[in-house]
Amino acid sequence: MTVAGRTAATALAIGLLAAGCATVPTNGPVQQVGSAQNGLSQEQEYSQPIAVGPESGWTPKQIVDGFLAASASFAGDHQVAKQYLDPAAQTAWHPGWAVTVVRGRPTTTYVGPLPKSVPNQPDLRAQVKVTGLPVATITGSGQYQIYSGSSTKSYDFSLVSINGQWRIDGLPTSQGLLLTQADFQHVYQPRDLYFLSQSGNTLVPDPVFVPEQATNTELATGLVKALLQDPTGWLAGAAVTGFPAHAQPIGQVRIDGQNATVNLGGEHGKALKASQRQREQMAAQLAWTLTSGPKPVQSVELELNSQPVRIMSSQYQDPQAYQGWMAPQPAGSSLYFVGSNSSVQILSGIGQSGAGQDERVATVPGQAGSTDAPPLTSIAISPKGTSVAGIAGGGAAVYFGPLSRGASLKEWRPPSGSCTSVNWDARGDLWVTTGDGVWMLPPNGGSAALVTVPVPPEADVTDFMVAPDGVRVAMIVHDGSSSHVEVGAITHSGQAATVQQQPVTIGAGIPQPDALSWYGTDDVVVLAGSSTSAQLDEVPLNGGPPTIIATPGAPTSVTATSPIGSVADIVIGLPGGKIMVSTDLGAFQPTRAAGQSPAYPG
After folding, report:
1. Are 269 and 246 in contact (CB under 8 A)?
2. How far from 71 is each of 35, 52, 56, 393, 397, CA to CA, in Å?
3. Which of 28, 273, 318, 320 is the most buried (most CB within 10 A)?
4. pTM of the prediction?
């Protein structure tokens, strides 16, 4: 299981309440879920709640209760839930992925009849109010957002009597679905959608929650539809899709054995006229999106207007064929740190056999490893391990330069304020957070540029970490007396950089986050608290709840890495110069390193 999958599965299992609708009659026909009769030999049915349609004589309150229960079943595009709606509402209701999650079973109250359009006639319209405590929302793009309030909310339903039977004709606006925690846990799952950087040659993961649907073909079809448009939410404007405009799936995705076939068409043959480059981009997005997840296929076949397409000399596309489109994860075999004599040192062989048996400590080449190195309190290493940057004591300046024999360090001082974090990206840019903003120092030695970051005027960014893909960024924002973690996306224009206008908060509930590190493609590790009661959390980018990582003592710094195809390491610095490592979330073990500010490349 991936880091993201393990995190989501663990976090969502905590505190979930059993679903139920005790006020809804349970007699009547059982809805058959799945559609395995369509002749596709490898279609799999996913477990869905058993939905019951409305029965004759049900009251407005029972109709709304029944609708809420049936909404948890995605079989047949909410086939049973739509039976509770009047014809116009059936046509207009397209909940998509959006959902409001409430704690326990909400309270349903009959408000009363609505004003009559014809006097002295039987009541033909009614109103029902549903009240519950929201715990989270899922946006239409699949982002999980924890509800920070503590007050209940009400959702109004209007009903109309049709031939003596009540049906819902008015739903709460902009709410999508309304599900209990237990129903959400049962029918939603974490997945990755893969889009492209603005350059079109790097895949950018978008971790989301998606409804499992009734079958794997329906789920795959929903994922494909999500890839047809540029991403929304916090990735909007920074990542794009490679699919041509107006491209549409022809029928559902077909799954046969371990292969998924995606047939695309569109207006005026747009998909068929896609260039070779676009076909490669579509194939890369499809291969990585459809082959991830708990029940993946292993390859994808692309058809354009029902005609199979050969891409890269093959009719079948798998993720390995597009491995070069994924940003390389920095190697985790070498760990850097600031030694007791203020020189930068490197620990190799970390995490291989435990207990430091194969570990070796050496001093890095150049001024950073010499006795006249500036007294650094925090360091960052470039993704390829060729450069170092560090914050001098007190945060007055940043020193940076190559890790090579005879190389010297350059000094950069912010116009005002103190430096609080440094981070290299894959382009070679150095990102520095200061009291007056985030600065980008280009690799060619040009002038530092102030980065546009959408935070309130009274807020400061204290930590800023660019992901290996160069598009996504995780940052800690300090606002008044509190701090929180946000994830956003970067766009470049010449020497200028901007964080897009829709960063979102993740890791809600973490007390006073202080430092963070990327942990693979879908998660960050966040260090929070004080020097005496520090806490370490694994935080998924999809907005799901964080998971506490048990640590010995009170860590003062953290770094992490998760190379694709290898185990993941988390390294913490402790008071007294002790540095410990956890491999793949195992218990922390001591290392031979003695110093502070451990840092993996990237």
Report:
1. no
2. 18, 10, 19, 57, 57
3. 318
4. 0.86
Residue 16: pLDDT above 70?
no
- Structure tokens given for 17: 């309440």
With 0-12 / 13-18 / 19 or more C-beta atoms within 10 angstroms meaning exposed / middle / buried, residue 16 is middle
Pairing type for strands 589-599 and 387-392 reads unpaired
Q: Are 331 and 351 in contact (CB under 8 A)?
A: no
Side-chain-facing half-sphere of 529: CA atoms under 13 Å:
16
Q: How far apart are CA 276 and CA 274, in angstroms?
A: 7
CA distance 556 to 595: 12
- 26 to 20, 21, 22, 53, 374: CA distances (angstroms): 11, 9, 9, 10, 74
Contact, 434 vs 396, CB < 8 A? no
- Percent above pLDDT 90 for the chain: 60
DSSP string, 240-279: E--SPTTEEESSPPEEETTEEEEEEEEGGGTTTT--HHHH
In terms of Cβ atoms closer than 10 Å to its own Cβ (0-12, 13-18, 19+), residue 229 is middle
At 233 the three-state DSSP class reads: helix
What gap in Å lies between CA 177 and CA 21, rounded to an integer?
16
Vertex 323 angle, CA 266 and 239, to 5°: 50
Q: Count CB neighbours of 281 within 10 A.
A: 24
pLDDT score of 531: 65
> DSSP string covering 415-456, please?
SSS---EEEE-TTS-EEEEETTEEEEE-TTS---EEEB----
Closest of 96, 110, 85 to residue 171, by C-alpha: 85
- The amino acid occupying position 393 is G
| Secondary element (H or E) of residue 495 | none
> In sequence order, what are the residues at sequence separation of 6 or more whose Cβ sits closer than 8 angstroms to the Cβ of residue 523?
3, 4, 7, 538, 539, 540, 541
Q: Cα(138)–Cα(231) distance, rounded to whole angstroms?
A: 15
Region 571-588: mean pLDDT is 92
DSSP state of 385: S
| Whole-number Å distance between alpha carbons of 30 and 34 | 13
How high is the pLDDT of residue 285?
A: 97
Angle made by CA atoms 293, 294, 295, in degrees to the nearest 5: 95
The CA-based dihedral angle spanning residues 494, 499, 501, 504, taken in that order and rounded to the nearest 10 degrees: 160
Report the DSSP beta bridge partners of residue 174.
none
